[in-house]
């Protein structure tokens, strides 16, 4: 059984109680995490605030070197971190699973390390010189979800470090172990207090809520549900915190009538079912033109039938269980409702424990629960349409606007449709393919701000304009 201490000020933090972390594939306890409260949060913020004074004074080259050292440490411990992720999150080691997640974390850390925000000269003439400087904010509060516990922690922490900020990270109580170990590893090469971690089961004390109102945390970076994101935004208002909120998505894909069903089947599947559908930017609803609707359904079902589902520690598994009971129950409810409204083409029946097979349901429409609600699990509704204008309207008929995709043999036609989708990212003949050199964020209820690239890095800074 794994048991990690929280790291505060570069040292193990001792608390009087802990809580169990379960393997969603077996239901067995795989480890225990510290059950921390307000006193531990205050201590973590205090040491992070103290460390900021010297960390923020580092040269740009020194910050870059430190981030490079952190990246190397993550890569050195990649196999260990991947195993911890699989045990607590459920995703397989293999395929687009935990090894892939850690590899992505290393790639993002490395790319972020190479970014910089140099002084920008706005004016330099006889009237004077005007410069735009980027200044670190202070203590960054990071609140991460359970679907990609290491990769999203890296998305939050590395840009904070690169810009001279210090961090207190709070992982989901479902998946705290990999983050505890990640921060422990980081502290092997960072000064004490620069990155700290607090964990709790959120039952007796709401750590995330306390972070949102803490007067010494200057920014909250949150990845999670829209409902929780709204609460973070409300509670952060009193202290005028900076916010980056990457919230839920109900991403739509539109298949145009000239698409090749066989050619797009694999892309459609992984666009929807990557990480067992437990991905903010996964495709959650698919609109298919009437002329190729049945052929697309047939090709997608044929591909999905060959994907092995099982315990993530088994190399043959490509998809694992749903991570927790609450999410499993939501997917089960939505699929049960869809059965009475459409036709189940594949899956549809819950398995043992938290296993739920890849499920594809046709014959649904906007207004049905599985179409309107973000399922965040292995169930894809397919909606038939006859007019492209109708498909665009239906795709945009959502409070969310994280991602979208268009599938076609005609790239120009696909781009024309893509430009009319109300979402932060649009892909052509793929879905959810985010990358570290492209800003990523949502519109409408899917969040505020962006992550990745220079635009994401800048969100960890304040602007100071110097007139000389």
From TrEMBL:
Residues of the Aldehyde dehydrogenase domain: 18-466
Pfam families under this entry? Aldedh (PF00171)
PROSITE patterns assigned: ALDEHYDE_DEHYDR_CYS, ALDEHYDE_DEHYDR_GLU
Q: Which GO terms describe its molecular function?
A: oxidoreductase activity, acting on the aldehyde or oxo group of donors, NAD or NADP as acceptor
Which keywords annotate this record?
Oxidoreductase
Oxidoreductase among keywords: yes
Q: Catalytic site residues?
A: 246
Top-rank taxon: Bacteria
Q: Gene3D superfamilies this protein is in?
A: Aldehyde Dehydrogenase, Chain A, domain 1, Aldehyde Dehydrogenase, Chain A, domain 2
Family that this chain belongs to: Belongs to the aldehyde dehydrogenase family.
Write down what this protein is called.
Aldehyde dehydrogenase family protein
Q: Name its species.
A: Shinella kummerowiae
């Amino acid at each position: 059984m794994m048991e990690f201490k929280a790291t505060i000020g570069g040292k193990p933090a001792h608390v009087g109680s802990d809580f169990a972390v379960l393997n969603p594939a077996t239901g067995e306890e795989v480890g225990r995490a510290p059950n921390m409260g307000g006193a531990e949060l205050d201590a973590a913020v205090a040491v992070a605030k103290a460390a900021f004074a010297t960390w923020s004074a580092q040269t740009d080259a020194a910050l870059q070197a430190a981030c490079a050292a952190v990246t190397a440490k993550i890569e050195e411990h990649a196999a260990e971190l991947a195993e911890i992720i699989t045990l607590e999150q459920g995703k397989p080691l293999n395929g687009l699973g935990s090894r892939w997640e850690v590899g992505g974390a290393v790639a993002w850390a490395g790319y972020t390390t190479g970014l910089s925000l140099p002084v920008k000269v706005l004016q330099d003439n006889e009237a004077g010189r005007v410069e735009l400087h980027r200044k670190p904010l202070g203590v960054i509060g990071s609140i991460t979800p359970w679907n990609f516990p290491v990769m999203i922690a890296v998305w939050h922490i590395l840009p904070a470090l690169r810009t001279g900020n210090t961090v207190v990270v709070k992982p989901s109580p479902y998946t705290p172990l990999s983050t505890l170990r990640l921060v422990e590893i980081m502290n092997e090469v960072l000064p004490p207090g620069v990155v700290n971690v607090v964990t709790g089961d959120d039952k007796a004390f709401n750590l995330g809520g306390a972070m949102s109102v803490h007067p010494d945390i200057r920014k909250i970076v949150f990845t999670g549900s829209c409902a929780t994101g709204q609460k973070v935004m409300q509670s952060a208002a009193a202290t005028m915190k900076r916010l980056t909120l990457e919230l839920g998505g109900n991403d739509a894909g539109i298949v145009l009538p000239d698409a090749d069903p066989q050619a797009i089947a694999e892309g459609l599947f992984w666009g929807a079912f990557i990480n067992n559908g437990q991905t903010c930017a996964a495709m959650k609803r698919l609109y298919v033109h009437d002329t190729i609707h049945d052929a697309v359904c047939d090709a997608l079902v044929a591909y999905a039938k060959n994907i092995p589902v099982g315990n993530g520690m088994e190399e043959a598994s490509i998809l694992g269980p749903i991570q927790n009971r609450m999410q499993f129950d939501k997917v089960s409810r939505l699929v049960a409702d869809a059965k009475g409204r459409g036709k189940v083409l594949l899956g549809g029946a819950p398995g043992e424990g938290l296993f739920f097979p890849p499920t594809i349901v046709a014959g649904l429409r906007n207004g049905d629960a599985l179409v309107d609600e973000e399922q965040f699990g292995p169930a894809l509704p397919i909606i038939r349409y006859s007019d492209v204008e109708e498909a665009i309207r239906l795709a945009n008929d959502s409070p969310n606007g994280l991602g979208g995709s268009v599938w076609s043999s005609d790239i120009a036609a696909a781009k024309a449709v893509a430009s009319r989708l109300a979402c932060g990212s649009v892909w052509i003949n793929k879905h959810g393919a985010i990358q570290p050199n492209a800003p990523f964020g949502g519109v409408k209820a899917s969040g505020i701000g962006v992550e990745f690239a220079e635009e994401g890095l800048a969100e960890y800074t304040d602007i100071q304009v110097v007139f000389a």
